[in-house]
Design goal:
The structure is a homodimer. Chain A has 12 helices and 12 strands. The first copy, chain A, is an alpha/beta fold. Chain A folds into 2 domains: 173 residues, Rossmann fold (3-Layer(aba) Sandwich), CATH 3.40.50; 123 residues, Orthogonal Bundle (N-(1-d-carboxylethyl)-l-norvaline Dehydrogenase, domain 2).
């Protein structure tokens, strides 16, 4: 069996390394970060932190080199989904299933424009790049996957992928309806990410500081109201995810804070933007999500020094 | 007649220099910024930008040197009002009147703890420090002053001060009720300052970029609702102040953005914090002002690298 990981940043690297280490499937990764790809080709990929391992697998920054794959895992930033799946789509046919493990909502819709069977996914492990070929593993966690409803992906395909990932060390729960897990993480991300990015506070400090801790809760309440009206049953309480992250050792920077520090476009359109979009559609007010969205868009707009 | 300017940053310097140039009063300034005081003592104070002048007057960083003054103008950051007026109060007696020209609301209450007659004031000129002894004059504008209601300051004292300032080149309008002017500027500041500070956008760019321009309007609407319920009639439309500032030449950084770039504590408690405080008191919801307040407090909290 062949599996291709599209996007080999921190999260994609964790998946690829664990899958390769388990040895059940031939692993390919595709990423535009050439130094990282070259380092992996030369020395394999090193993971350190919450787990320590080095894994060897096929890596390329030329998507035309990808062979046919039974499974795909898309782990790019949400802002790159559309381009990345267009470049890699030839590796998949009508028997393949491609799973998003990305942040936010809206990625599966973009993948389904190019691929027959799509799997909705949400993952909690987090990390950061240390150097080309070397990824820091900050936070361990589970992954939830289920059929993307419009593509009618057979549940058996979901279960095979979940088994493969779990045996590789990335514990994955197959669900008939993965929307609850996805929205739980979306609501968690849409509170912690922009607040971290705007205040420069690491996750634990932002949780413990009363003004920003309260803001987390107020943003979560807005997101929950939208999910409730959409008929999505959340998979636990996003506040518990906030607490769990705050209790983890170290000073974890939310991925959006990492983006902002590197002046990279953020995923806010797929987080607070998506919650506001759905809120507007079904008549649930989301003033705080709109505010955080506007502030992050403003911060991105400042980087080219506008007139 | 003797007049003392307490706080000789950009705004205090503009007032002191114009008053001294006019020559009607003996001008003293008190500031803890020693390099600035020494430069003024040596070479006078230079203003450049919207007006160009150099003025000589008495400057000290030792408040015990201040002589008795008939008038005082407090121009410190709002976060320093309490300390500064405690240090300088001996210069004033029961015949003196002390006017705030500071940002936000809540300063007059602090001055009135130490001084018999207090004058409520709001000023629009803006500038920035170029070097010790040299202030850039970015934006010209009017000043509105009126009795601080609880101290029953006679209107005649307000009118004398207004005349002095106007003849000195700082056009000042005496009003029986200066709350409307003060809240108009408060609402303007509480929208433009934290958004600029969080996005790093200069005022014109933040006004013209649709997401932040909309956020300005939403914050203004919240502040207007609080003022309306308090029975305060605004002195014009804060949106026009936003537009006027956006049309000014140059890339003006809101004072809170200047504070954030220098990692100085901001005035957000006297701006968004004050609007939320009044909103809570009279039952007007202020979710956006609370959000901006929490984000700025969080950003300040990040500077000492908290656990």
């Amino acid at each position: 069996m062949r599996i291709c990981v599209i996007g080999c940043g921190a999260v994609g690297s964790l998946f690829a390394a664990h899958l390769a280490k388990a040895g059940e499937a031939e692993v390919w990764v595709y990423d535009v970060w050439k130094e990282h790809v070259v380092a992996i080709q030369k020395n394999g990929l090193r993971i350190s932190g919450a787990a320590d391992l080095t894994a060897r697998f096929n890596a390329t920054s030329d998507p035309t080199q990808l062979p046919h794959c039974e499974y795909g895992i898309v782990a790019t930033k949400a802002i790159h989904t559309k381009t990345a799946i267009a470049q890699a789509a030839h590796a998949f046919d009508e028997t393949s299933a491609v799973c998003s493990v990305q942040n936010g909502v809206g990625n599966e819709e973009l993948i389904a424009e190019r691929v027959k069977y799509v799997i909705r996914g949400t993952t909690f492990p987090a990390g950061h790049s240390i150097a080309p070929g070397h990824i820091g593993y900050d936070i361990q966690g589970d992954t939830w996957i289920g059929p993307f409803e419009p593509t009618g992906t057979p549940m058996a395909r979901v279960e095979v992928l979940a088994g493969l990932l779990t045996r590789g060390g990335m514990n994955t729960i197959p669900l008939k309806d993965a929307r609850g897990a996805q929205w739980t993480k979306l609501i968690f991300n849409a509170s912690t990410n922009p607040v971290g990015a705007l205040t420069l506070l690491h996750h634990g400090a932002a949780t413990r500081f009363p003004p920003t801790g309260q803001l987390f809760n107020d943003l979560i309440a807005e997101g929950e109201a939208v999910a409730r009206k959409l008929g999505i049953e959340l998979h636990g309480d996003p506040r518990q995810l906030v607490q769990k992250g705050a209790n983890a050792p170290g000073k974890h920077h939310a991925s959006m804070l990492q983006d902002v520090l590197a002046k990279r476009q953020t995923e806010v359109d797929f987080m607070n933007g998506a919650i506001s979009h759905w809120g507007d559609k079904i008549g649930v007010p989301t003033p705080l999500n709109k505010t955080l969205w506007a502030l992050i868009k403003g911060l991105e707009h400042s980087w080219p020094d506008p007139d």
